[in-house]
Amino acid sequence: MRLTETAPAKVNLALHVTGRREDGFHTLHSLCVFTELADLVSAESARNDALSISGPFGGDLPNGRSNLVVRTVEKFRARFPDALQSGIALHLEKHVPVAAGLGGGSADAAAVIRLLAQMTDEDIPDADLFALAATLGADVPMCLFSRPCEVLGIGETLKPVSAFPALHLVLVNPREAVATPDVFRRLKSRSNPPMPQLPRSIDRAAMLSLWLADTRNDLEPPAREIVPAIAEITEAIAATQNCVLARMSGSGATCFGLYGSAAAAHQAAHDLREKLQGYWVAATPILVE
Hints:
The protein is of the alpha+beta class and 289 residues long. Helices cover 31% and strands 28% of the residues. Strands 1, 2, 3, 4, 5 and 6 form a 6-stranded mixed β-sheet that branches. Strands 8-9-7-10 form a 4-stranded antiparallel β-sheet, with helices on one face. Strand 5 (149-153) and strand 6 form a beta hairpin.
């Protein structure tokens, strides 16, 4: 039987770099949301482990051990050695741009964890699955959760955000990959103030908009040095009608606009495709449940 999981794209509405640990990892304080735009990962029992890849961005990925999906299967088997009784044939349908600040690889890894947990005869506790996710990358635990959340530490501490407003995003990428380590190397300040405290309830778009006005993405300035088009993109998004916020996500180069309705987002996406020809543009709702 073939099972399928979505791997929703992650968007950092705000991302504050608050420090650097002795092991070199940076501590963050971020508000993350996830979108209906997603990769699709399917799995079925097979003689041997294997990965095939398709989709609009499938050609940008290897299917060997350098792919995080393959390493996820290896780490799952090592952590739960008796859980899987056969090989696993995985197929990744790639719709999220690669190295784009949208957590695509981490989302794929999280989807694989969910799939493998369904294919076992064991009842693996969620805590063990999140512990496994943390060994695969800082973004994988939040992608395993895939709902609005406040993220602290190096990504291992998640605080779910309840009653999040039903908002829509327009995502724009100049089709330039950005390596996260390169962005952090250019970061001028590594100890910055955290985000302001979140309201107890942010179920209204106006309340979220006011709160976001006091936040930032500390990785946007260094990312602009690598990809100057980020400045052009955020300016173009901000100029669209009914845009609540225009900012870069993660370490870039994808930028987003935040909108209160699907109609506003789709109109903005239409206008941006005409203005920023050749760029990847997508409109998508935020997942709130």
